[in-house]
Amino acid sequence: MRIGILTGGGDCPGLNAVIRAVVRSAVANGDEVVGFRDGWRGVLDDDVVSLDLAAVRGLLPRGGTVLGTSRTNPYAIEGGPGRLVATLERQRIEALVPVGGEDTLGVAAKLAADGLRVVGVPKTIDNDLDGTDYTFGFDTAVGVAMEAIDRLHTTGDSHHRTLVVEVMGRHAGWIALHAGMAGGATVVLLPERPFDVEAVVGHCLHRFESGYSPIVVVSEGARPADGALVTASGQTDAFGHVRLGGIGASLAALLEERTGREARAVVLGHVQRGGTPSAFDRVLATRFGLAAVAAVREGRSGVMVALRGTDVVLVPIAEATARLKLVPLERYAESEVFFG
Ligand code: F6P
User: Fold this and answer.
1) Which annotated residues bind diphosphate (predicted)?
2) Per-residue pLDDT tens for 49-83?
3) Is 124 marked within a binding site?
């Protein structure tokens, strides 16, 4: 059997571990694997690379994706879906394994509905895909953010200033929630819960009173209850997402003014997405890759591999991409116990 694989959307630690697991497992079964370069762009343009055992040697710890990625949306391109089908026929692909988040898997769901055999693998550092308890990449991103917060505590305390740490998280604040809890943040601000500026100022002043300096962890998609979302630019990608960034700097300026203490903003940005995956992410990505090939062999389609508890299961792609998995308010309430 010829299996096609692609990685789409923002890159994420663990993508190469999935590619390796798919190839290792497929080749052991006598199957062939073809990689498409740069996500759906590679399928549109018939840009392929043959993946054998030699091609995946050494990939397990490597960050990013050797296949490249893009945010290409074939359904936003005239004749796009037809070009996808033509390439898959030309390449004699019997099953496709797209590895991606809501956008990449949204395209996968449409292709499966049109009769192509598709088994999706969920990835995003944001951990906001529904249908799976965790996506790989998230644990690594939280580890990077936690280490940054640990380091910022000591410099903030030395200078008696507020440090605002802006982390990724467009619609869901999972990275902020976990990194803030792991790093002992003074306040954590999420997109799911518009924040009250007065309350944040109060928590910061309280922290200064204790002789220590506040660390405010804010998701890029968070916004004040009485204000608009802060965006770095009005630009949108092919799936219509606005490019975010800037809330950290605005908040730091506001806190400096309102607390009377110096404040600085640190934007972790793509540092959270780069580099080697954590052990958890390597194992999860590997298990997802193995499960995807097993599902292909069983003739399954329109499904996505997912983690439920400690088990890897299959769920309908359409169900997993219907809505985002947001931070429940009770999880936020757990972090609030430590505010101030
Ligand atoms: O979707 C994952 C993500 O890392 C988001 O958290 C973030 O908003 C976005 O990608 C950044 O995208 P880009 O790499 O295109 O700037």
Assistant:
1) 10
2) 999 999 999 999 999 999 999 999 999 999 999 99
3) yes
Report the candidate in 154, 179, 156 with the shortest Cα–Cα distance to residue 166.
179
Q: Would you say domain 2-137+277-320 falls under CATH 3.40.50.450?
A: yes
Q: In what side-by-side order are the strands of the sheet with 263-267?
A: 187-189, 215-219, 162-167, 263-267
For atom 15 of ligand 1, the residue with the nearest CA is 10
Task: Confirm or reject: Cβ of 244 under 6 Å from ligand 1.
Answer: yes
> Considering just the CA atoms, what is the radius of gyration of the chain in Å?
21
Same fold yes or no, 2-137+277-320 and 140-273:
yes
DSSP 8-state assignment for residue 133? S
> How far, in Å, CA of 231 to CA of 243, rounded?
7
Distance from Cα 97 to the centre of ligand 1, integer Å = 22
CATH fold label, 140-273: Rossmann fold (3.40.50)
What are the boundaries of each domain within the chain?
2-137+277-320, 140-273
CA of 269 to the centre of ligand 1 (A): 8
Q: Is 178 annotated as a binding residue?
A: no
Give kind and range of the element (H or E) at residue 181. helix 174-183
Return the SS3 of 251.
helix
Is 270 one of the annotated binding-site residues? yes
Among the listed residues 38, 103, 126, 128, the single catalytic one is: 126
